[in-house]
Design brief:
By secondary structure, this protein is of the alpha+beta class. The protein has four helices and eleven strands, in the order H-H-E-E-E-E-H-E-E-E-E-E-H-E-E. The longest helix is centred in the N-terminal third of the chain and has 28 residues. 16% of the residues are buried.
C-alpha cells in the first residue's frame, strides 16, 4: 500500500506539471510578442500595384511624382515631364506591398531623433484609384546597419507628446529604392544612328571622283593659229 500511495503522488505531480505547461503555452500564444510575430508575416503596406494612381517620393531636397496611365505605363510629372522607367517604380512598390517588416518596436515621441525621423531618408506616398492614401516615412538605419526604421500612416506626425508609435524595421532595399539616382527613374531615350549622306558624312579626297559621279570629259584641242607668210598672207594647216 505504501508503494501505491507513492505512485499516486508521482502521478498527481506529473499531472499538475503537464497542466501548468498547457496553461503557460496558451498564455504565450495570446501574448503581444506572438501577435507581433504574426503581424510580421504581413506586407509593409497592403495594396495592388495596378490600383495605384499616383506615387510621390519626397527625398528632402527633391520630390518625384509619377502618374499611372490607363495602359499601365508610368509618367513622371515632377521634376520633369517624361516617360518613367517602369522597373524603378515596380521595385519600390514591390518592397512595400510584398516585403514583410523584419521586426516591430515601440517608439516614444522624444525618441524620434534616435530613430532618424528628425531627418528622414524619404517619405513615400501611395495614392490608390479609390482615393485611399498610404504614407511611409523611412528613418535611419537600425543597430545592424542592414535595415531601416519606418513608420506607416502615422497620425499625427510629427510625433505627438504622450503617444506611442509602432516602428517597423524594414529591409535596406526600401532605402535603395528611394535613393535611386534621378536618371534611373526615367525611360532611356535611344539616339538614332546617322543616315548615309547626312551632314558630317565623309567627302572624297582631292582628285578623287565621288562614287556614282560621271568622269569629266576632256575638252577638244584648240586648233593652232595660222602662220604668217613673207608677203603677209596667212596660211592654214
Amino acid at each position: 500500500m505504501k508503494f501505491q500511495r507513492s505512485t499516486l503522488i508521482l502521478v498527481g505531480v506529473a499531472f499538475l506539471l503537464g497542466a501548468g505547461v498547457l496553461v503557460a503555452e496558451s498564455q504565450r500564444s495570446r501574448s503581444p510578442e506572438s501577435a507581433t510575430q504574426s503581424e510580421s508575416t504581413k506586407p509593409i503596406l497592403a495594396f495592388e500595384e495596378t490600383d495605384v494612381a499616383t506615387l510621390t517620393v519626397d527625398r528632402g531636397n527633391e520630390t518625384l511624382e509619377f502618374d499611372q496611365k490607363g495602359d499601365g505605363n508610368w509618367q513622371m510629372t515632377k521634376p520633369d515631364q517624361t516617360v518613367a522607367e517602369p522597373g524603378a517604380i515596380a521595385f519600390l512598390l514591390s518592397r512595400l506591398d510584398t516585403d514583410s517588416p523584419l521586426q516591430t518596436v515601440t517608439m516614444q515621441p522624444d525618441q524620434a531623433a534616435d530613430f532618424g525621423f528628425n531627418a528622414p531618408i524619404g517619405i513615400v506616398t501611395v495614392t490608390l484609384k479609390d482615393g485611399t492614401q498610404h504614407e511611409l516615412i523611412l528613418g535611419g538605419p537600425d543597430f545592424s546597419g542592414s535595415a531601416n526604421y519606418a513608420v506607416i500612416d502615422p497620425a499625427p506626425w510629427p510625433p505627438a507628446e504622450g503617444k506611442e508609435y509602432s516602428v517597423l524595421v524594414v529591409s535596406r532595399d526600401v532605402a535603395n529604392g528611394i535613393n535611386r539616382p534621378l536618371q534611373e527613374w526615367k525611360m532611356p531615350v535611344e539616339t538614332p544612328a546617322p543616315e548615309a549622306g547626312a551632314e558630317g558624312a565623309a567627302t572624297p579626297n582631292e582628285g578623287e571622283t565621288p562614287e556614282g559621279a560621271a568622269e569629266p570629259q576632256n575638252s577638244p584641242e584648240t586648233p593652232a593659229a595660222p602662220e604668217a607668210t613673207e608677203n603677209g598672207a596667212k596660211t592654214t594647216n
